[in-house]
Amino acid sequence: MAHKITAFVLTYNAEKYLKGCLESLMWADEVMIVDSFSADKTVEIAQSLGVRVLQNAWPGYGLQLQFALNNASHDWVFFTDQDEVVTLELAQNIRKLMESTPHYLAYRIKRQNALLGHWLKYGGSIEKNIRLVNRNQVSYCDSQHTYICEDVKRATLEGVVRHDMAPTLDFWWGKSFKLATIEAEVDYEKGARFSAWKTAGAFWKFIRRYIFKLGFLDGWAGLYMALQRSIYILVYQACLLELKRGVRQPKENPHTTKFR
């Protein structure tokens, strides 16, 4: 028996790239956005494409995901970020899976990142995250990341979502610094503290990604990516130290999606 599926996107001020994202989801039985009261034309763009629109004040990443799961019309749910595009191969494989009997309750999806116009292949840049779940069996934890609470059987589905990380380097680095700061503030409230050991580990992370995981084969883009991953850790730890010393005060309920 074929299973129907809801595809959704968490949105906030996404007018620059939302149209392409939503158009790549039109294979789903229901397409939905959960918008955090955008100030731009995000809602209008979604409505023009016939997409179901829900609005919910931002409670945190994991809780917003769970809100979407709770309000989806179908048991099987797939989600993507607002600046990603689903490839035809992945869409076909999801539809094929829905026409059969899925043997798992959660499926990882690969994500390929582009930087400086180059699709990254090395340095650990191809990520796998759980994006397709049965909402009756899986829930999302209160977290800034896509962690599911249950220890369920999971598999990886072939195909990728594509993510153009940033139009320019200054935008990319600015976004990276901002989100490292936000993540540190959120985690500090949950008990995270500065770690000199983890700070030093940022340098090993660069070596591991750039040398041992062959990031250098991606050229300048691979170098920038490896540097960003390490600098993100340094900024994150520096913010934790500022919070501990009272130099920085955590902001209430910051809105962010992940920057990976």
Feature tags:
about 20% strand, globular, 9-stranded mixed sheet, 2 domains, Spore Coat Polysaccharide Biosynthesis Protein SpsA, Chain A, 7 helices, alpha/beta, about 260 residues
Walk me through what this model shows.
It comes from Thiosulfativibrio zosterae. Belongs to the glycosyltransferase 2 family. WaaE/KdtX subfamily. InterPro entries: Glyco_trans_2-like, Nucleotide-diphossugar_trans. This is LPS biosynthesis protein. It contains seven helices and nine strands, in the order βαβαβαββαββββααα. By secondary structure, the chain is of the alpha/beta class. The protein has two domains: 5-164, Spore Coat Polysaccharide Biosynthesis Protein SpsA, Chain A (Alpha-Beta Complex), CATH 3.90.550; 169-245, no CATH class. Strands 1, 2, 3, 4, 5, 6, 7, 8 and 9 form a nine-stranded mixed β-sheet that branches. The longest helix has 27 residues, at 219-245.
